[in-house]
Amino acid sequence: MADTPYLPSKDRIDRENRRQKVNEKTAFLIIKGMPEGTEFGVDYKHWRVGPKFMGLKMVPPGVHFIFYSAVSKQGTVAPRSGFFYTFTEGEVVCKDWDTTEECLRPSLNSLEDPRSIEKSLIDYPCTQYKRWWREPLKAVSRNNCRRSHPSLTTSNNNPSL
Questions:
Q1: Residue 1 pLDDT more than 50?
Q2: Which single residue of 23, 110, 146, 153 has CA 20 to 30 Å from 15?
């Protein structure tokens, strides 16, 4: 029997159930307004932001380093800025791009259902996470992050003099 939109196949139901379980066990980072061309990354992986970019999905629980660099219209890349964040299962973190300061700020608006923008979210690179990031981070806790970065602000490699 052919698969029809009104009568889902067992495979489609299984796929949807797996996706739902992954969404419940992982986190989302929603970023609103980041300009196209900005360099954005998490842990050890980075991308150039496209016009539809709105953040990350399937972020494993635990400590992660989020970083970004603004890029001018001429292609000049600003110094990298970033912050550590400890994600929890099912968490949705919302940030807004501050066009004046060219940085991420906590969002005043939350997003009830990140699945509504799922096609604009990048998958967290899980295969490399298991190989390169999970083991070293077993020694890092939320308290360690707070002690080493007590203000919970963004770090950058171009501090004011």
A1: no
A2: 110
Q: How far apart are CA 158 and CA 80, in angstroms?
A: 8
* Spatial contact of 64 and 92, defined as CB atoms under 8 Å apart: no
Q: Convert the pLDDT of each residue in 96-136 to its tens digit.
A: 999 998 899 998 887 767 888 989 999 988 776 666 555 66
* pTM greater than the 0.70 cutoff: yes
- Contact status, residue 41 vs residue 31, Cβ threshold 8 Å: no
Tokens (6 digits) for 152: 């919970």
Beta strands of the chain (E only): which ranges?
Answer: 27-32, 39-42, 45-48, 55-59, 62-69, 81-87, 92-98, 103-106, 122-123, 155-156
Residue 16 in tokens: 């949807």
Amino acid at 106: P
Q: Which phi and psi (to 5°) does residue 41 adopt?
A: -155, 165
Cα 22 from Cα 16, distance rounded (Å): 10
